[in-house]
Write a structure and sequence with these properties.
single chain; alpha/beta; five-stranded mixed β-sheet; 12 helices; globular; disordered N terminus
Length: 348
């Protein structure tokens, strides 16, 4: 078991991140494509909100097709509460992900040319995170800087309320900073798992009678071939959560609030992210292997190669390795859980 106490857990996780950064800093800065598009969502967002120092910018508009649906300004500072609350959740979730050992996307090799995370509020459904950085050369309010991008609906009812959608989309940027692999069966469920960092509890409770897959045939049918195999990841989260010591939120995050004074974090402890951070650190290492194996440019695989099923068995091995290194065997678990996890770990 690597985690013996909360301070040690943090120091080990952060050491892993720092070690990764040493390798990243030795890499050349990749180029940032320049777009000259002058129509559509991004060019129409005339207003900008940013808090100095955190690299997050929120773009929005008060009129037209993409206007904010709710423009309430409770604190009278001239910025709609919706905009401030989007930034607050994005910043808080990002800091929490950093705390538990995830490498910041702006510190990844893939995004070393980027200096900002841009959030665009518009007339869209839900949210979307983009894996490629870019410069909006024909949009003066963007300042000609390289940024990675998140789009979010400008009219989510009762936001923030119980919503964690901004935390979800922010985690996608972390994922893309680690790996070029974008198989939906792990990208979406692990973002769903991660967004719980600002909520209470973990993923949806799985069917208690459902076990982890014990054969490759089961894995193919119930996980690899599914777009959102939440039952698999929920079962895994239920097993791994008790296997890790909790981390106390620092005061800055524990007391972080939205504009109306409600707390952003619904719990003062974080649990269950040691496994997830290891999974992405190990996946990062596999990317280098895949690039070399197939002769693909490190950060330019092509969309077909990023989403190819050829990666499934490799990602499974990464999951198995992350489970083993988390050391859940040192914790009290029912015998059937041990049997379940042992069968899963020996599958190949």
């Amino acid at each position: 078991m690597i985690f013996k106490s909360t301070p040690k857990a943090i120091s080990i996780l952060l050491f892993g991140v720092l070690a990764s950064l040493e390798v990243v800093n030795a890499q050349p800065i990749t180029s940032c494509p320049v777009s000259q598009i002058t129509t559509g969502l991004v060019p129409s967002l005339t207003e900008k909100y940013e808090v100095s120092g955190n690299g997050i910018r929120v773009f929005y508009t008060l009129a037209g097709e993409h206007a904010l649906v709710i423009q309430t300004d409770l604190n009278g500072n001239g910025v709609p509460d919706y905009v401030e609350n989007v930034e607050k959740q994005a910043d808080a979730a990002r800091k929490a992900y950093n705390l538990v050992g995830f490498r910041d996307p702006l510190e990844s090799g893939r995004y070393r040319a980027a200096t900002h995370i841009d959030i665009n509020l518009g007339n869209i459904a839900g949210g979307a995170a983009y894996s490629e950085p870019g410069i909006w050369g024909a949009v003066p309010q963007r300042g000609g800087v390289c940024a990675i991008r998140i789009d979010l609906s400008s009219g989510i009812a009762n936001y923030p309320g119980t919503w964690s959608i901004m935390a979800h989309e922010m985690f996608h940027l972390f994922q893309y900073g680690y790996s070029m692999m974008k198989r939906s069966w792990f990208i979406e469920p692990t973002a769903n798992w991660a967004e719980r960092i600002i909520r209470t509890g973990t993923m949806n409770h799985p069917d208690p009678t459902q076990k982890l897959p014990q054969t490759m045939e089961e894995m193919q049918t119930t996980v690899f071939s599914q777009t959102y195999p939440y039952n698999f990841w929920s079962r895994l989260a239920k097993i791994m959560d008790p296997a890790e010591d909790s981390i106390d939120l620092p005061e800055e995050l524990r007391n972080a609030t939205y504009v109306d004074g409600s707390l952003i974090f619904k719990d003062d402890k974080i649990r269950g992210f040691g496994f997830l951070s290891r999974f992405y650190q190990y996946l990062d290492a596999e990317d280098a292997v895949v690039s070399q194996l197939y002769g693909w440019p490190e950060y330019d695989w092509g969309s077909g190669n990023q989403n190819h099923a050829m990666h499934d068995a490799r990602v499974l091995k990464v999951i198995q390795r992350a489970i083993s290194s988390t050391g859940m065997k040192n914790h009290q678990q029912p015998d059937q859980v041990y049997d379940d996890i042992e069968g899963f770990l020996t599958m190949n």
